Amino acid sequence: GPLKEVLFFPTAITCVEHLYTPDPRINSPCPCPCPLPHGLETSFTRLLRHLLSAAASLDLCVFAFSSQELGRAVLLLQGRGVAVRVLTDRDYMRITGSQIGALRSAGICVRHEMGAVHMHHKFAVVDGRRLITGSLNWTLTAIQSNKENILVTEEPDLVLPFIGEFQQLWDANDPA
Amino acid sequence: GPLKEVLFFPTAITCVEHLYTPDPRINSPCPCPCPLPHGLETSFTRLLRHLLSAAASLDLCVFAFSSQELGRAVLLLQGRGVAVRVLTDRDYMRITGSQIGALRSAGICVRHEMGAVHMHHKFAVVDGRRLITGSLNWTLTAIQSNKENILVTEEPDLVLPFIGEFQQLWDANDPA
Ligand SMILES: [Zn+2]
Ligand SMILES: [Zn+2]
User: Fold this and answer.
1) Radius of gyration from C-alpha coordinates of chain B
2) pLDDT tens, B2-60?
3) Cα distance between residue A105 and residue B60, in whole Å
4) Among the partner residues A120, A141, A153, nearest to B142 by beta-carbon distance
5) pLDDT for residue A28
């Protein structure tokens, strides 16, 4: 059947450098000098792999976004030509370490909830096909401290409603 | 295939009285006098139906729980003899309108995260078989105002990891 995976957090903290440059031809032959554990698969490396698998599009709808590593992943996708759209909460756009400014500076289209309510979703759709959703906000506390879950699936019955929700919220919050 | 359903919030506010007494033999023949719209199916009535379908057990793991309607549903299940276990966040146990005290008074076993971190999950497992999970906390604001999602599934690949997570957190937070 279609992809179904559940990830729980907090995650162990390991080196993820290799995920950003997965092509061995452009990897340095020298081992990474950082002090973190290397070569381990964790909930966070799984999440990063799913995100970095994007070849055509990434639609991201997330209440709070301050994780530097996840910001780096989104910027990397943008640099590869992936069409990135980000929907976020108005009040949480300016939290400490928010990545939203950096995304906008890089030319990524960001919209925020324009009503008086909170946009409390935490989901992403990769290539219009792979849904990543759960309780996890894109913050370091969520990843490294909280008890959180993420569910990843390509089951159309679950993915398609989220694609529809994203498009509806995207259209509803057009600032133009 | 197994049940798969996605619900989005905020929900329309409608009468849900009929869901608590679904047996027509014990329903009053008089129509409900309340001023809310009647006879409509919404994301919230769907959520209530899934919860109230519990015949044997309800395992609930939720960061914030202050919705009176959801508290009423859990108390109703307890009264029917359903084995209810509730795991919640320590800091959010005492939010305004928290239902946790009422659940404990009714004899429901409640445990809270005992570490320094937040228990940020928002999921329930009905009868060890049906998973309800998403961004939605069990609060009136989440239900009636926020942009939120809930996913309901009986897909074993998705349900079983959550059952394992619940049991692990339940055991880890045993106050005894
Ligand atoms: Zn390293
Ligand atoms: Zn009524």
Assistant:
1) 16
2) 999 999 999 999 999 989 986 666 656 678 889 999 989 999 999 999 999 999 999 99
3) 42
4) A120
5) 63
3-state secondary structure of A64: coil
| DSSP for B57-91, written as a single string | EEEEEES-B--HHHHHHHHHHHHTT-EEEEEE-TT
Please tell me what DSSP assigns to residue A153.
Answer: E
Report the predicted TM-score, pTM, of the whole model to 2 decimal places: 0.94
Q: Chain B residues with CB inside 8 Å of A149's CB?
A: 121, 123, 133, 162, 165
CA–CA separation, B4 vs A133, rounded Å? 14
| Residue-wise pLDDT tens digits, B55-107 | 999 999 999 999 999 999 999 999 999 999 999 998 877 777 899 999 999 99
Is the CB of residue B174 less than 8 Å away from at least one CB of chain A?
no
Give the whole-angstrom CA distance, residue B136 versus residue B156.
22
Strand partners, B150: B7, B134
